[in-house]
Structures are given as C-alpha cells and as structure tokens.
Amino acid sequence: GAGVSQTPSNKVTEKGKYVELRCDPISGHTALYWYRQSLGQGPEFLIYFQGTGAADDSGLPNDRFFAVRPEGSVSTLKIQRTERGDSAVYLCASSSTSGGGENTQYFGPGTRLTVL
Amino acid sequence: DQQVKQNSPSLSVQEGRISILNCDYTNSMFDYFLWYKKYPAEGPTFLISISSIKDKNEDGRFTVFLNKSAKHLSLHIVPSQPGDSAVYFCAASRSYAGNNRKLIWGLGTSLAVNP
Question: Which of B31, B98, B106 sits opposite A55 (nearest CB)?
Fold first, then answer.
C-alpha cells in the first residue's frame, strides 16, 4: 500500500505570498498530524486532525497558518503572507487510532518551503 | 524548554560494533517513546517504540531500553552497519483528548557507521 505522500516536494516563494501544502495520508488512517522542522532542530507539532476536525491546533505559530481536512482524508496546510522565518520542512504524518494509545505515526517525505 | 533531550549531536562507530544512542526526558506524563531514523531529504522512518509499562523492547538488531526513574531511554544497534548511518530522533508522547498522540521530539543524533 502507498505511504503518506506530500506535494510539492519543494516550494520556493516570495515574502508576502500565499502557499498551500498538501498531504495525502495512508488510506484508512483517521489521525493526521502536521509538523515543522527547521534546520538543526527536531520536528515541532503544528496541528492534529481526527477525521475532518482539527482537534488540536495549539502548535500553529500564528493566525497566518491554517489547515483543513474537509473529507477526512487529504489535508492542506495554508500559510498566508509568508515570512522568511516560515522557511522549513513541513512534515505530515498519519496513524490509525484503533490500537490503544500508542498508534505509530508514519511520515511523508515533507515539503521544503523556502521564503525569499 | 526542551522536554526531550538528545545531548549527543553526533556519534561515530565502527561497522560491526554496538551503537548506543541516548535520550532524556523531563515530563513524567510521557507514556510512550519512539525512535525514528531520518535520511537527508526524506521524512522520518519509524524504527522502534516502547511503552512506559515496559523497560525493554527488541526488534532484530534494534533494542530500546527505558529507565523511568531516571527518565532516560537508549537505543542499541547491534551490529552496526554502514546503512545505519542517518540522524536518529527520539520522540515522546502522552495521551491527550481525542486520541491525540502528538510527538515531542529531541534534536537528533547523527550516527556515522564507518566500514
């Protein structure tokens, strides 16, 4: 079966522009997470979806960041008025929630965002 | 405030020897711990995990040990192979509402296995 896919793999944009990053989770996984990894750091949690709803968006840095998952599968992370500090690798992960609390998260390859 | 700490940024090991990667955590609410491996330009790949009710979990060449009293875990790779060269991340989670198991990550340890 296919793993988690993310598009685009690379995105270069100019400061102030709007970008959308897409995540296609593993089929049947109801849980979806977005993380952001800056150079030399570990990934940092952004937002968690259970089905269609954003159950935890406490990691979104500010209101320029928004994410949706309208049909409970594909998710889009949207960043408005991009800033140079938004440059990072954006990672998406999905997991099932059927097996107790410790459901392993499987990651996509990430989208490398560069804001010039 | 770093809740998950990997204090060794890098480690170099000879092929065939044991690699030991260490991780410390501060939050006693964490109840599940995972190790991920990451190659450049790829997403993290799950390696092995351990629940806080256990002190050891083994999968082939990989063993994770958990010392809850010391809030310390370690990943042992025996024998180490050149293909194991990658960045290894320690991550921890706890139960939140709505089956949320968001991961808190360390900074990673870059492992180089030399032929």
Answer: B98
- Rounded to the nearest angstrom, the minimum Cα separation between A45 and chain B is 7
* Nearest chain B CA: its distance from A55 CA (Å): 7
A89-110: average pLDDT? 84
- Compute the CA torsion angle B24, B10, B103, B41 (nearest 10 deg): 180
Identify the structural domains of chain A with CATH numbers, from first to last: 5-100 (2.60.40.10)
Residues of A within 8 A of B99 (CB-CB) are 31, 50, 97, 101, 103
How many percent of chain A have pLDDT more than 90?
83
Give the closest residue to B88 by CA, choosing from B29, B1, B13: B13
Asked if residue A7 lies in contact with residue A31, where contact means CB atoms within 8 angstroms, the answer is no
Binning pLDDT at 50, 70 and 90, where does residue A102 land? low
pLDDT of residue A47 exceeding 60: yes
Judge: B44–A55 Cβ closer than 8 Å, yes or no.
Answer: no
Residue found under tokens 């793999």: A9
CB contact under 8 A, A107 and B96: no
CB contact under 8 A, B46 and A59: no
Q: Do B98 and A45 touch (CB under 8 A)?
A: no
Per cent of chain A over pLDDT 70 is: 95
Q: Of A71-85, B38-52, B89-103, where does mean pLDDT reach its minimum?
A: B89-103
| Cα A89 to Cα A8, A61, B38, B49, distances in angstroms | 11, 15, 13, 24
Q: Which domains does chain B have, with CATH numbers?
A: 4-114 (2.60.40.10)
